[in-house]
Amino acid sequence: MIEPLRMSAELECSAEHAFSVWTNRFSSWWPRDHSARGNPNAEIVLEPRLGGRIFERAPDGREIDWGEVTVWEPPTRLAYLWHIGSDRADATDVELNFVDAGDGTARLELVHTGWERLGADGPKRRERNTAGWGGLLPHFTAACRRG
Fold first, then answer.
1. What total of structural domains would you count in the chain?
2. How does strand 77-82 pair with strand 63-73?
3. What is the pLDDT, as a whole number, of residue 12?
4. Domain that holds residue 130
5. What is the average per-residue pLDDT within 88-95?
6. pLDDT at 147 over 70
7. Spatial separation of the C-alpha atoms in residues 86 and 114, rounded to whole Å
């Protein structure tokens, strides 16, 4: 078994607001240089519902699937299959929990699993995603602060 990737972030907003920023404003905080085709003008879309797609839409309308929402429990829990830039058969699992601290702040707990499905590439992909999430979460926490 390959160890799950676990990360967290302290947020200067409620869990409800953080959930909304992640799900309804995904493209607003996702870094422009993080697209499957390398297009800085691509829109990143998360359809906010169970079974919703996560995808990249280029300015010309072409789309690339990145994942699919598998758990939808607003405003506390979200999970999805994640296969950005790869085949759906190679999807890993991302689970996000938005934990309200009761004082106007919250904590995001991220658990990324399923590395075993990738065979020999699993450990390398886990390592790349450790760096990837580490670079993405500051963008998300900043978007939560902006309101």
1. 1
2. antiparallel
3. 96
4. 5-146
5. 96
6. no
7. 14
Provide the whole-model pTM. 0.94
What is the reported pLDDT for 106?
98
Three-state SS at 43: strand
CA 94/CA 38 separation, integer angstroms: 22
Report d(CA 147, CA 144) in Å as an integer.
Answer: 6
Identify the CA nearest to 82 among candidates 91, 90, 69, 71.
Answer: 91
Distance of alpha carbon 103 from alpha carbon 60, whole angstroms: 44
Give the Å distances, CA to CA, from 78 to 66, 83, 120, 123, 127: 15, 16, 28, 24, 23
Residue 27, domain CATH: 3.30.530.20
Task: Report the C-alpha gap between 15 and 68 in whole angstroms.
Answer: 22
How many Å is the maximal CA-CA distance in the chain?
A: 44
Q: For residue 85, which amino acid is it?
A: G
Q: Closest by alpha carbon to 74, among 7, 8, 11, 20?
A: 20
Best CA proximity match to 19, nearest among 93, 91, 82, 79: 79
Q: What is the pLDDT of residue 32?
A: 84
What's 104's DSSP letter?
S
Average pLDDT, the chain: 94
